[in-house]
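so i finally got all the pieces together for this one. its two components total, 166 residues if u count the protein bits. some of the lines might not be protein, just check the labels. i wanna see the whole assembly predicted at once instead of chain by chain like last time, that was a mess tbh
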Amino acid sequence: MAILVTTACTPTVQVAMPNEPININLNVKIQHEILIKVDKELDELISDSSGLF
Amino acid sequence: MKTLTKLALSAVFAISLPVMSMDLQQAMSALGAAKTQGLVGEQPNGYLGVVGSSAQAKEIAELINKARKAEYQKLAAKNGIQLADVEAIAGKKAIEKTDPGQFIYLNGQWQKK
């Protein structure tokens, strides 16, 4: 009786490897770094030296 | 009669055409005073706006804004981003750096910082 209970359906999870390579999109990070760079360049422009601010 | 009409017309044109009496260098020299006097102020779009309606302030703003746009365009091209993005960051910064007592354009109206 006890044996019957423990051998009852054991769930199996199958993990299949994807056929295609995994793409990780880094555009967001690159865009963010560009904005930080522009931010710094604008700081220089605004800091009186240009005379335009 | 014809010459009179011509004279009258040319007089009208002389008045209606804005004469740029200032160059960029002069506008840059006058900018500080124009800001402290509350004639011009910073806007979120990255450009100067005219607070009152003084012709001189308008001229200063036009000249400075033209030069600013050229700089923004350079930055945008160099970094491969949109001009609008550069303008937005610049506007935010310029407003942040505005001295107390000077004008900034926020929520659709000029206000003293």
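The CA atoms of residues 17 and 29 of chain A lie 27 Å apart.
The mean pLDDT of chain A is 82.
anyway lmk what u think
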